[in-house]
Amino acid sequence: MKYFSTRGDPARRGFSDILLEGLAPDGGLYLPAAYPKVDAGMLARWRDIAGRSYAELAFEILSLYIDDIPLSDLKRLVHATYTEAVFGTREITPLAKLEDGLFVQALSNGPTLAFKDMAMQLLGRLFEYELARRGEHLNILGATSGDTGSAAEYAMRGKRGIHVFMLSPDGRMSPFQQAQMFSLQDANIHNIAIEGVFDECQDIVKAVSNDLEFKRRWKIGTVNSINWARLLAQVVYYFAGYFQATRSNEQKVSFAVPSGNFGNICAGHVARTMGLPIHRLVLATNENDVLDEFFRTGTYRPRSTQETHETSSPSMDISKASNFERFVFDLLGHDAAAGARTKELFGETLARDGGFTITRDEFARIAGFGFVSGRSTHADRLATIRATWQGSRRLVDTHTADGLKVAREHLERGVPMIVLETAQPAKFAATIEEAFSEGDAGGGAGPGPGAAPVPELPAALRGIEKLPRRVTVLPADVARVKRHIEAHAEA
Ligand SMILES: *Cc1c(COP(=O)(O)O)cnc(C)c1O
Questions:
Q1: Does ligand 1 come within 6 angstroms of the Cβ of 399?
Q2: What pLDDT, on the 0 to 100 scale, is given for residue 417?
Q3: What is residue 371's predicted lDDT score, i.e. its pLDDT?
Q4: Is residue 268 in a domain?
Q5: pLDDT digits over 410-420, tens only?
Q6: CA 20 to 30 Å from 389, out of 135, 195, 243, 454?
Q7: Does 276 map to a domain?
Q8: CA–CA gap between residue 18 and residue 23 (Å, rounded)
Q9: Ligand 1: distance of its center to the CA of 27 in Å?
Q10: 326 lines ligand 1 (CB under 6 A)
Q11: What is the DSSP letter of 447?
Q12: In a domain, 312, yes or no
């Protein structure tokens, strides 16, 4: 299995070469040169395996894409990752029925209570393995406003050959998010609270990474959402969800996905391309609707920071969708001509005009890929959280509520709809409270304030706000951050 760039560079690379890298040298994203296809025999075998072990299913799928790590090693890494101890249930991504034909698949039972753990936990093990094999080490530098940073830290903590330097805006994350990150006592995790806003954190990361001499000297790397291994790990739960929702491989299901950077739903697209019987991929955005706009109109217009709304589903507050280029390349045919056209759209038109519109013919192909979309607002989230509790006694978080709201607009008779649950409600307790304090506003159907549900943290996370903290506060100054890295990094 070889990988190539979405922008037409003819170079082919192995999995472990692209594992530790970000963008391809031509600025594109890596994709497999050809997607492996699953046939009826494989699907039947995998349904059997999925009933026994998520880890075993993950191994089957990953081994189709990874041929430069010995199978016995890959198996060990995958089985060490997807355990009941780490993900809370034997099923790892259990499916719950809300009503006939409508399900929620929980991807949020990992250490940080958000779906990013699904991929990041595996990435931590793959990184540690590959670095040891090469006798190398890595200093991961990142900026976070919440979820991604903590998922990275919980995946990399205690891993040999890896240090993590995570910048966050001082005092601007929720108390729970701060506690989650800052309570980690591992020597290889370095929290840096920057006196500034998130954009300043991100600018510092860019400035440090653009200093190529410093980057080489200190082996600076990232764990951003365009990493192919992260996407690949996410393909597995589409299969796992499908097998739980159906009895036969003749059936089709649809998935609804709360989306931001297009990483999660892109994994669904890969699963569908491999041959998993997915009818629709329902893309849900919040008020930051750059992707909904594309799937309705064919125009992709990333927003500026000023145009990006701060919403109550903050992990979907994106201005541009960093994984989206992968889908466009596939839409255009996944070949050399598609590479040239993708390069034109993303490398030239986007940079020049701030956006692009695909042709009518290109737009017409989207239907064949199963994609439909919709958008959800703060009021929709509150109403959905309330209605889902009233109807099914399940408390969902704000992101999952966006997915559910849009899923309902695309229900089709005879096709089960699986909404991916991307976070636990306890992480967004303030909005949950708001949803139920308005309970009677919609005509008296809501529970009184006394009956409002209170989202509960898993036992292991209760009281983390009181734990000692490991964090260094620094001014928004590139030189100061560099000095901090030099003082603490593995050289
Ligand atoms: C990251 C995240 C999303 C968005 O996922 P993408 O892969 O960026 O589309 C949705 N919900 C939650 C809770 C997240 O953390």
A1: yes
A2: 98
A3: 98
A4: yes
A5: 999 999 999 99
A6: 243
A7: yes
A8: 9
A9: 23
A10: no
A11: P
A12: yes
- What pLDDT does 438 receive? 63
Q: Which of 37, 75, 116, 206 is catalytic?
A: 116
147 lines ligand 1 (CB under 6 A): yes
The CATH number covering residue 373 comes to: 3.40.50.1100
Burial of 295 (0-12, 13-18, 19+ CB in 10 A): buried
Atom of ligand 1 nearest to the CA of 258: 10
Query: What separation in Å is there between the alpha carbon of 259 and the centre of ligand 1?
Result: 6
Signed CA dihedral, 358, 361, 362, 368: sign only: positive
**Contact of 375 with 292, CB cutoff 8 Å:** yes
DSSP string over 6-28: TT-----B-HHHHHT--S-TTS-
pLDDT tens profile 91-145: 999 999 999 999 999 999 999 999 999 999 999 999 999 999 999 999 999 998 8
Q: Counting runs of H as helices and runs of E as strands, what totals does the chain give?
A: 21, 15
Place of tokens 């159906």: 246
Q: Is 264 in the pocket of ligand 1 (CB under 6 A)?
A: yes
* Structural domain boundaries enclosing 312: 95-110+229-455
How many domains is the chain partitioned into structurally? 1
User: Which residue matches tokens 């890959």?
Assistant: 74
The CA-to-CA distance between both ends of the chain, in Å, stands at: 33
- Helix (H, G, I), strand (E, B), or coil: what is residue 285? strand
Determine the distance separating the centroid of ligand 1 and the alpha carbon of 380, expressed in angstroms: 18
Q: Which of 264, 282, 424 has most ligand 1 atoms within 8 Å of CB, for mutation?
A: 264
Q: Is residue 150 lining ligand 1, measured as CB closer than 6 Å?
A: no
Which residues of the chain have a pLDDT value below 50? Answer: 440-446, 449-450
Tell me what pLDDT residue 444 has. 44
Residues of 61-91 as b/e, b for ≥16 C-beta within 10 angstroms?
bbbbbbeebeeeebbebbeebbeeeebbeeb
Cα 415–417–421 angle (5° rounding)? 165
Active site (annotated) includes residue 116: yes
Does residue 162 lie in a domain region?
no
Structure tokens at 375: 């958008």
CA-wise closest residue to 166 among 229, 467, 180:
180
Q: 109: CA distance to ligand 1 center in Å?
A: 14
Residue 96: C-alpha distances to residues 110, 248, 328 (Å): 17, 18, 32
Query: Which atom belonging to ligand 1 lies closest to the Cα atom of 399?
Result: 11
- What pLDDT is stored for residue 442 in this prediction? 46
Token code pair at residue 71? 């199978």
Longest Cα separation, the chain: 65
Distance from C-alpha of 256 to C-alpha of 63, rounded to nearest angstrom: 27
